[in-house]
Structures are given as C-alpha cells and as structure tokens.
Specification:
three-stranded antiparallel sheet, 19% strand
C-alpha cells in the first residue's frame, strides 16, 4: 500500500530511470555490460563486513562488490565494462544512509595515460543522469517534490576535482581537528566540505581525489610520487558520498606486497585474481556507485530506505 502513494511510486520510477540513464551513457561510451558471481570464496572488499553461508561443506561469502571480477574482465581484453547488481555489506550501521543490501552501479575501464580519463567518463555519465532526470522524468520529479523539497543538483561542465590536501585545508579552516590529515572523513566533515565546495565552486557534485593509501582497499594504486597517498577518489552529491573509485594496482607483485602489508592472506579467489594480471593487463581504473544513495540524495529524501523498494538493514529482512 505504501508504494501506491504517488510520491513513493514516483521514487521507484526515478530509481529505474537512474539505471536506464547509467546504461545509456556507458553504452554510448563503448562499455559492455557484464554479470559477475554474488557467491564467492572470500572477501572482495577488505575492511567491509561480509555475510557468510555454507556452500556444500565450505564457507562462501555474499559479494561485497564485483571489484575483483571487473578487473579480471579488463585482463580478458574487455576494455570497458559495467554491471548493475546487488551488493551485500554485513555492517551494523543503523544510519539514514546505510543499507545491508543495495544495488551497485559499477564500472571499470582500461586507461591510456592517466586515471583522470575515468573521472571524465564518470562525470559525463552523471551529467547524462542529471540532465536526463530533469528533462525526461520531470513529471515524476514534480510529484516527488510536492512531498520532498529538492532542487536540481548543481554541477560543473567539466569535472570538479578537489585534491586531499585542499580538502584538509578547507576543513581545518572550518574548525575541524584533522590531526595529521591522513584519517578518513566522518559524516560531519563530508557535509561541511560539501557546503564549502558549493560556496567556492558553485557545485553540489564534486570528486575528492588522492585519498591516503592507509584508508583505501588493497587493490588501490599508490601515488607514484608520494606513497602516503593513492590514485583514488570518492564522489559526492550535496556533501555526501555516493561513489568510491580508484586506479587499480595492476602489477601482480606490488598488489601482493600491499595485500600482505594489510594482513590479508593472498589465497583462494585472491590468488586467481592476482594470477590474472601475470598474463598482461592494461592499466585500469573504475568506480562503484550506490543506486539507492544517488536517488536518496538527488531527491532530498530524509532516509535512504525510501529509495529502496524492500530495504534491508540490520533490523529488517522482510518482506
């Protein structure tokens, strides 16, 4: 009955529209859609909680992302790939922006000169989504905005890329204790940074680049000029993160070294992943986007659960 309410029904139509526009943009930029396993041997994301299940006498995990398989697709000479599929996170996060199961919009692509090529592709894709929503789905947006007030997302024509040191300087000037400037952002920091970027650059949509290596996953490429930082980025709408990405480490010896330095055993599925690089793989980069979080923030909803037809959180596994 809840989904019969006009605004709630329109939210589901906007969720569908975001997937449609995502696919349109990437198909037009030469991508191929792939489908990867959701039952896997081990964790795909270090640091993210994982659901486990019995798999004929052995333990399997529900995939936290298609990360390793996207990269193996690149090593198979599928130069540009994307996937729309479920993502599972066993994190006891009872916040208004976290779910235990959500839909991931993932992409991965070979790069030629610099990973900013990927940022340009992502920026073009989001521009297509933002413009498409406002022009082709204005009826649905009008219904939703009668109940949930929001304005179209402001964005720049070219990617707005903020580097980590600049972000730390902004937050320090705003009054935050950033310590040595090498720790991850909390929610209050993200919101404050979003407000400052909006005031300085006039955009709700920006990319924060050069995260410290210590707080990024093992497959992230270190910055070749300063290993304290990495060739990785998060993307924000209205001061909240919707996407995480990076240039991936495609050197099998280096990625093995990073895995061991993080205390992870390079066995099982990880060993297959590493071996796929030994046969030659193009430098590559990509991103993972949370569909429900994009819808939630674009529409100015008060809770990400309203952007999910059947939300899954630590307290809900039905209907």
């Amino acid at each position: 009955m809840d989904l019969r309410a006009p605004a709630n029904n329109a939210i589901m139509r906007i969720q569908s529209a975001v997937c449609q526009l995502f696919r349109e943009s990437l198909y037009s930029q030469g991508f191929v859609e792939i489908h990867t396993p959701k039952l896997i041997k081990g964790e795909s994301e270090s640091g993210a909680g994982v659901f486990t299940t019995d798999y004929f006498g052995t333990t399997a995990c529900l995939a936290q992302s298609p990360q390793l398989y996207k990269q193996m697709a690149i090593s198979s000479d599928l130069d540009r790939v994307f996937e729309v599929g479920p993502v599972f996170r066993a994190e006891n996060s009872n916040t208004r922006r976290h779910l235990c199961e959500f839909t991931g919009l993932d992409l991965e692509m070979a790069i030629h000169d610099h990973y900013e090529e990927t940022l340009e592709v992502i920026h073009a894709m989001f521009k297509h989504i933002f413009n498409g929503l406002e022009t082709r789905f204005s009826k649905e947006l009008a219904i939703i905005r009668e109940q949930y007030t929001s304005e179209p997302v402001a964005f720049t024509d070219e990617p707005c890329i903020i580097h980590w040191p600049e972000a730390m300087e902004i937050l320090s000037e705003t009054g935050f204790d950033i310590g040595d400037g090498m720790n991850d952002l909390n929610g209050a920091m993200e919101l404050a940074l979003g407000e400052a970027i909006k005031e300085k650059y006039g955009t709700d949509f920006f990319m924060l680049d050069k995260y410290p290596s210590a707080i990024r996953p093992f497959y992230t490429m270190p910055d070749p000029t300063d290993a304290r930082y990495s060739n990785s980025y998060d993307i924000f709408i209205r001061g909240q993160e919707i996407c995480s990405g990076a240039q991936r480490c495609h050197d099998p010896d280096l990625v093995t070294k990073i895995i061991e330095s993080k205390g992870i055993e390079p066995e099982g599925g990880l060993q297959t992943y590493i071996e796929s690089f030994r046969h030659g793989v193009s430098p590559h980069a990509g991103a993972g986007i949370g569909l429900e979080r994009v819808v939630f923030l674009y529409l100015g909803l008060d809770n990400v659960r309203k952007a999910s037809m059947f939300p899954r959180d630590p307290n809900r596994c039905t209907p």
